[in-house]
Amino acid sequence: MIERSGSRAPRRRLGVEAMPVRPGGTDAAWIGHFADRSGPREPVPRRGWQRELAEFNEELRSRFAISPGERRVYGAQVRQVVAAHFGLTRAEVAGGSRDARYVRPRQIAMYICVRFAGLSQVQAGALFGRDRTTVAHAVECIASRIAADPAFAKEIDALVAACRRSSTRHPIPAHERSP
Q1: Could you give the domains of the chain?
Q2: What's the CA gap between 125 and 94, in Å, rounded?
Q3: What is the pTM for the complete model shown?
Q4: Residues with pLDDT less than 70, the chain
Q5: I want to staple 29 with a disulfide (CB 3.0 to 4.6 A). Which of 24, 25, 68, 136 is the partner?
């Protein structure tokens, strides 16, 4: 049967005729396959994709879930902490200069915003007055440098820890906080 609802395209009503046909079998055999399961269900063993999905979910939880002792990091705090670390003002970190002494701290701040503050690349770009592709480039540059230089990785970890600590000592006004 075909139903019409408003201006939508015609849809088939789900019924027995809409059941998928088992390859090499009949509809009755396919439906009977489900009908004989009346007892308690056994746990389904995880297939390859299900295991990968579970591992991916664990990775997301480890990256983005905040453990009870940690504080949330906000984009404005990142700008403030990174600027203080490099001896710059927050306006210089977010400014338009392409001078190397401003670019590297800006890239570090963008990296921390995306990886630790949970901002999207678009949100981080808006915070620094940049496009999302610029943020993506900054994150890639800093991530590759972290992989190559353990001392730089420790510096980034120290900056992230300072951002978490600053959330209680130096409150940022609500209008400057990142979502």
Answers
A1: 75-169 (1.10.1750.10)
A2: 10
A3: 0.58
A4: 1-46, 63-70, 167-179
A5: 25
Q: Is 127 exposed, middle or buried (0-12, 13-18, 19+ CB in 10 A)?
A: buried
pLDDT recorded at residue 73: 81
CA atoms within 13 Å, Cβ hemisphere of 157: 8
CA separation (Å) from 45 to 50, 51, 57, 71, 112? Answer: 9, 9, 18, 38, 38
Element (H, E) at 106: helix 100-115
Give DSSP secondary structure letters for 28-53: HHHHHHHHT--SPPPPPPP-HHHHHH
Non-local CB neighbours of 16 within 8 Å, separated by 6+ positions: 27, 31
Q: Return all residues near 79 (Cβ < 8 A) that are at least 6 apart.
A: 90, 93, 94, 109, 127, 128
To which residue do tokens 């005729």 refer?
A: 17
